[in-house]
Amino acid sequence: MNLGIIVIHTAYIMLYVFVCFAFLDQRLAHVNLYYVLPVMYITYLLPKCPVEYAELAATGGNADERLAYRQSNPVFSIWGALSDKVGNKTFARPLSETGLLVFGGIMSAYALKRK
User: Where are the domains of the chain?
Assistant: First the structure.
């Protein structure tokens, strides 16, 4: 397994954990709402996700290696199953990347409003 892919995916997962739980501390909520979420939103306006470019660079364009890692990683397996189960019952996909950005923004704004 390519170490580069493991590092990229771990950082990606940790970023979303931060986005979802930053509301627990007001300073982190401020950083999340005013810096992290806008930068993530701007990167989603790009033609391809930067993580995808990094994965391609780390694997040398080997799609089989990327797919094998995603299938063998328990976090991706659990998250994919949960996302499919919840996403099939709603008109939107609340556990998608965009849904998590919205959740992080709402919770951070609420946390800052409470102070």
Answer: 3-113
**pLDDT above 90 coverage of the chain, percent:** 17
pLDDT tens figures, 29-80: 999 999 999 988 888 788 877 777 777 777 777 777 767 766 777 766 776 6
- First-to-last alpha carbon distance for the chain, in angstroms, is 46
DSSP annotation string for the chain: --HHHHHHHHHHHHHHHHHHHGGGSHHHHHHIIIIIHHHHHHHHTSSS-HHHHHHHHHHTT-HHHHHHHHHH-HHHHHHHHHHHHHHTTSSS-TTSHHHHHHHHHHHHHHHHHT-
